[in-house]
Write a structure and sequence with these properties.
The complex is a heterodimer of chains A (about 350) and B (about 260). With about 350 residues, chain A is an all-alpha fold. Chain A contains 15 helices and no strands. The mean pLDDT of chain A is about 85. Chain B is of the alpha/beta class and about 260 residues long. Chain B has two domains: about 170 residues, Rossmann fold, CATH 3.40.50; about 80 residues, no CATH class. In chain B, about 35% of the residues lie in helices and about 25% in strands. The chains are: A mainly alpha (about 350), B alpha/beta (about 260). Chains A and B meet through α12 and α13 of A and α2, β6, α4 and α6 of B.
Chain lengths: ~350, ~260
Amino acid sequence: MTSFNFKRVTFDAVVFSLLFVVALVVITKPDEEAMLMLGRNSLVFLGGCVLGALVSSLFAAWGIKTAGDVLFTPRHLNKLETAVPWYKTVWGWQMAVALGVTFAVAIVKTNFSIWELTDIDGFQGAMRLFKGIFNPNWEVLPAAVNNIIETIFMAFLATALAIPLAFVLSFLCAKNIMKGPVSFIVYTLLRTVLNVTRSVEALIWAIIFSVWVGIGPFAGMLALMIHSVASLAKQYSEMVETVSEGPIEGIQATGATKLQTIWFAVVPQIVLPYISFTVYRWDINVRMATIIGLVGGGGIGTMLIQYQGQAMWREVGCIIVVIAIVVWLMDAASAYIREALK
Amino acid sequence: MENILEVRGLDKTYPNGVRALKDVNFTVRKGEFLVVIGLSGSGKSTLLRCINRLHDPTAGEIIFEGQDIAPLQGEHIRRIRCNIGMIFQHFNLIPRHTVLSNVLMGSLGRLTSLRSIFGLFSEEDKKKALQYLELVGIADKAFIRADQLSGGQQQRVAIARALMQNPRLLLADEPVASLDPATCHTVMDYLKKVNEELGITIIANLHFLSLVRQYATRVIALKAGEVVYEGTPQDITDEWFQRIYGQGAKEVHIS
């Protein structure tokens, strides 16, 4: 089976199975216990997929286009009917029904309720909170300023420590540098490790490190650093992969070593985007450091969660003002620096 | 005169299956200005890149100064490259560096990685670099960024960078193909000067027959990866021209 055929069938099968499972749930109304039987439920979903694959193949045999066809069959093999409105095609209805059902399920799952949103008691509770926030208690300002300074430095150190690691990794994770069998294994291995590291959110790293080194800014800094290394290495290595080959050839031809070639032909091409990415990462890290503080990463976030827990909304208001100002300043400064570097 | 380079039975097949060179044989004598002609895709660039081992030949011998360099690997390739300069169609300078620093990069092969990364080029090297810039007539541009120069000037910087290696052989891959006709001659004249005054052997890929007649001491022609002509530029007749460039081809003159 060609790869696009496989993608087409898989896509159709999953869409079909989604509708199939939703229909089953609506008809049989399973109780809590039945919903928790993961093994059985997965089998039902897989069964739906198999059915869907059969249906998709049937449609293919009849020459009717499904959504999977439209998405994955290469253009040159795909004779799209021109000027047929979507509601006269199978794939159009397939997509419309799938989207509609997904939307309906989402509304049910999130307990979406206009009544709750317009309930007068609840609204007045929120108003008390807003009043506190818009009437900050400036007495906690000195503490808030000290804490946000901690947060900024936490973000700075995390970024600074991440730079050299990410710099070295970026070459080891660039396809055009890592040619040859051994290099390719190193490349694949590092890429996988970094992808996994990056898919674990900084917030979760902060939870891990707050257990490891104790609650506080150090844990938060480590969490941000790990996440920054993974993110920067990816962005950097993508820059390395887009450098032009000419200068590399030019330097190689002089009899330069691999290290010299990277330093003289690759590095000058990537320095500016590197700095730009790094400044942006610092900016992101300041925002993230605030969030990380919520789970014990130290800095302004920890202070925020403490006052929030005691429902001291006027103090929370003061902290929010400080965070807003600093994030706005960082955002403006990093945008300005990145613009200047172009 | 002795041979500086001898290519025997050279074959190159790319990983995608394209056979770019088929049993190529020729010799180059010391001090020659050999020009390789042929259509785009005839294997000229591949040939030059096999000689300094930017590409790995699939089979055959490349005897440079009596040593077969075709089977060499790693560090040994690097040592050989130090003796073979190369200039490119798109100059391949480092745009953000100054002209002088670009020329100094020609001496990288002699320096340890660590020394060069800290920019520790010797005063002697700097003096030499300036001399070579003088030779190609752009010493006054030494401290300007390379990307501020015109194409012809950049190619002259590239020549100076190659000379910095003290090469005994200079490869020129379409050195004037992206230059205007006037600049074209300036660059070719400097190559000729390098050839005649410094006695450096040159192998150049060229497109224009008029340039070939003017500068080459000997010519080989490639067609679909095979050598179809070897001789002096004066011997290229209309018949040969048709054979190399295909029926109905007309010679373009560049003045």
